[in-house]
Write a structure and sequence with these properties.
The protein is α/β, with parallel strands linked by helices. It is about 50% helix and about 20% strand. β26 and β27 form a beta hairpin. The chain is elongated, with a radius of gyration of 43 Å.
Length: about 750
């Protein structure tokens, strides 16, 4: 047993090269400053590319693919996290495609619909818009002329003449009556006049009947004219009016992709609207480029099979709604053209489903005529990528200025900046500085360095996070902070304040959790002897912004001898966390077997204290190991130090979110003095060195970095880089490998004696 210990003590974990690498970490702030020297104090000297595609930073592979797609009219699927630039690339692609090949891609023919073989069928035709306009105008003129030739039939003049004669004869008959008393022979005239009146009355009625019959026949002629008017083709698409090259479809469906038939409001009473006047077209018929913002909506809507068919055949028949009801029986007799370029986006979960669904038919269609592009989620920090960050900040400054101008242009023109100041004072409810101007500010070098620092904190392994959409909000918030102070430039303090204010929903909730965890950690430390208790480091990642939020994780560990040989980890644990606990059990068991004594069963309890949301991942495995070892040998843990890392045998491997984990326990109110992190995560502490005093430190041959949290090099915080669990024991328990082995031997002997008693 002691030979094994001696062998370990002779083996050095760290070399002179390792110590040199830790010392080099302290040069990071100066390297970042050097990479930003090209700015010459602020972003006013930063150039923004005129190429629209180059406005998207970090995504070189995707930009290269976009340019190839623009040349061969292929399809493109961009796979990546939200905020990495997929939508922006699609918009920039449209601009480049429009400038380069828009005249070739944009439709030149109008699409018209006209009646088919019956009332439920329609036909489509393609022709130049001028030609269609001439034909429709000619048809309308002919129908108008035909309707104008049909004058309203009338016998009013004949009826009026008959009516006058009738009245005259009636008058003569009346006059002849008194005369007949004196000359009886004249009564004959009275009879003749009366017969004439009756005849004229019959003739008048005959003319009225004839007029009515002729008018009824004329109504049928008007109905024929109306029928021909309804048969005039309907223009469904006019390229002179539809100038947009790309249509953004947020939720693809049968209606908005293919088109359909509107409900007929006059389907009763034999006043049906002709089918060709009820047709509307979808994106396939009208748009050269279709952008599907989130492919998951395509799957959920069930339109995938239709899209695959259309991508293959490049044409489709328009059909009525598949459900019963108005338009269900409507069909087109000929095909509509659908030569679309499909640009789609999705995340990795959706991609996995697509690969299984239909044996990857959609991906096959994309790859046949285009590419599937993996969007970068993070990129290495280099002088080139730092320059890209500065250029990105500059273009966001320009966009911010445009937004302000669009909002306040009218007020500035009428009232000047004094009027803007008065209105803003009403908005904010306080006096603003003299000379206040609502104008965009350039970012200083140290402010851009804070943006770079934040992108580093949201990633790992010397990389910058590519999820830039949330950073837009930080840049705008920092702008308003500078404007409120009337500062000529946006400084680092403005960015720092913006980062505090501009939290995602998850961030706001996590802040409350962090506050609770910090109070819990202080409470436990004040009431325990620290044996079996250890401060782990956890992290929560916002799904919307990729921002990480670290928090201390209090863990209680206990080993009971003579029980079943198992691990009991209470609480809501994920599969990875459960596997990590089993790995710790195996590591402890192996450690106990090194004593050479008879092994007895040990029941190991692990309690993630008040981890109500659950625990997942293996980053707490080294913390659990330290807690179990503390309880086993009866040595208290230094609760002023936190620890994180994935334990594999004796080796500590890297974990995620180390930057935010460390930053979360640097709060002076928490009373922490340092942390132990994996050696492989050493570069993740570089962002914490920006705008802070720091020095190299070493403790028991374990290298580290000391960061001073207050000005004047006060309130030091030590970060030690551990390769093995024995390095962690030295910091957390204050014991060497030999002392650990001695403690194990002592505990095992005691357990054997108790079992034999």
């Amino acid at each position: 047993m002691f030979n094994r210990i001696a062998g370990y003590l002779q083996m050095a974990d760290y070399t002179s090269v390792d110590y040199g690498e830790i010392k080099d970490l302290l040069d990071y702030p100066e390297k970042l400053k050097t990479n930003l020297d090209f700015m010459k104090n602020d972003t006013g000297n930063v150039a923004v590319s005129k190429d629209p595609i180059e406005k998207v930073i970090f995504q070189d592979r995707a930009k290269k693919a976009i340019r190839k797609i623009a040349q061969n009219r292929g399809h493109l699927l961009m796979v990546g996290k939200p905020g990495t630039g997929k939508s922006l690339l699609a918009r920039m692609f449209e601009r480049v495609l429009d400038d380069s090949m828009g005249d070739l891609l944009r439709p030149v023919d109008s699409i018209v619909a006209y009646p088919g073989k019956d009332s439920n069928h329609v036909r489509f035709a393609y022709a130049g818009p001028e030609k269609i306009d001439r034909k429709i105008a000619r048809a309308r003129n002919e129908i108008t002329a035909a309707s104008g030739c049909v004058e309203e039939f009338s016998l009013a003049d004949q009826i009026a003449n008959i009516n006058r004669i009738k009245k005259f004869l009636f008058l003569l008959a009346l006059i002849s009556i008194p005369v007949g008393f004196f000359i009886p022979q004249l009564f004959i005239l009275t009879g003749l006049f009366g017969i004439g009146v009756i005849f004229m009355l019959i003739q008048e009625n005959s003319n009225k009947v004839q007029e009515k019959i002729q008018r009824e026949n004329q109504d049928k002629t008007n109905a024929v004219v109306k029928h021909y008017s309804d048969m005039i083709p309907e223009v469904l698409f006019d390229p002179r009016k539809e100038k947009k090259l790309m249509i953004n479809v947020s939720e693809p469906s049968f209606q908005n992709m293919k088109g359909g038939f509107r409900h007929d409001p006059y389907q009763s009473g034999k006043l049906q609207t002709p089918i060709h006047k009820r047709v509307y077209l979808g994106a396939h018929a009208k748009a050269p480029v279709i952008y599907i913002d989130e492919l998951k909506t395509l799957i959920n809507s069930g339109y995938m099979s239709n899209l695959l068919e259309i991508m293959q055949s490049k044409k489709y028949l328009l059909e009525g709604d598949r459900r019963s009801g108005s338009g269900a029986a409507d069909r087109s007799e000929n095909f509509l053209k659908a030569r679309n370029i499909i640009i789609a986006c999705c995340n990795h979960d959706t991609l996995g489903f697509i690969q299984k669904e239909g044996d990857g038919a959609f991906l096959s269609r994309i790859e046949d005529k285009g590419e599937v592009i993996q969007m970068e989620s993070d990129v290495p920090e280099t002088p080139a990528t730092v320059r890209q960050v500065a250029a990105y900040v500059k273009q966001e400054i320009i966009n911010f200025g445009r937004d302000l101008t669009a909002t306040w242009e009218e007020v500035i023109a009428k009232e000047g900046y004094e009027g803007v100041k008065e209105r803003c004072e009403t908005i904010f409810g306080k006096r603003l500085p003299a000379g206040y101007q609502l104008k965009e500010r350039e970012f200083s070098t140290d402010a851009v360095a804070e943006i770079v620092k934040e992108l580093r904190c949201r990633s790992h392994d010397q990389k910058l996070c590519c999820m830039l959409r949330p950073i837009n909000g930080v840049i705008k918030s920092a702008q308003f902070e500078a404007i409120m102070e009337n500062s000529p430039l946006v400084r680092k303090r403005h960015v720092q304040q913006a980062l505090k204010d501009h939290l995602s929903l998850e961030g706001a909730l996590t802040e409350d959790i962090i506050h609770h965890k910090k109070n819990l950690k202080k409470y436990i430390a004040s009431l325990t002897d620290s044996i079996g208790y250890v401060v782990g480091l956890a992290v929560y990642t916002s799904g919307a912004s990729a921002r990480m939020f670290g928090q201390p994780l209090s863990i209680r560990c206990q080993i009971n001898s003579g029980g079943p040989d198992t691990v009991i980890a209470a609480g809501k644990l994920g599969d990875i966390a459960k596997a990590a606990a089993q790995n710790v059990r195996a590591s402890i068991k192996n450690q106990l077997q090194k004593t050479g004594l008879k092994y007895s069963g040990y029941e190991m309890h692990i309690d993630y204290i008040q981890a109500h949301g659950g625990v997942e991942g293996d980053s707490a495995s080294i913390a659990v190991d330290v807690g179990l070892m503390s309880d086993f040998i009866g040595k208290p843990v230094n609760l002023k130090y936190g620890i994180t890392g994935s334990l594999t045998g004796d080796i500590i491997l890297s974990v995620g979110g180390v930057t935010e984990k460390v930053r979360s326990v640097m709060d002076l109110d928490l009373g922490m003095e340092g942390v132990c992190i994996p050696w492989q995560n050493k570069t993740d502490i570089e962002p914490l060195l920006v705008n802070a005093d720091s020095v190299y430190t070493i403790r028991d041959e374990i290298p580290g970095v000391r960061i001073f949290r207050s000005e004047g090099k006060k309130d030091p915080f030590d970060i030690y880089f551990c390769k093995t669990k024995y390095n962690a024991y030295k910091i957390m328990l204050g014991l060497s490998a030999g002392e650990i082995e001695t403690g194990i031997l002592k505990r095992c002997k005691l357990d054997i004696e108790r079992a034999s008693a």
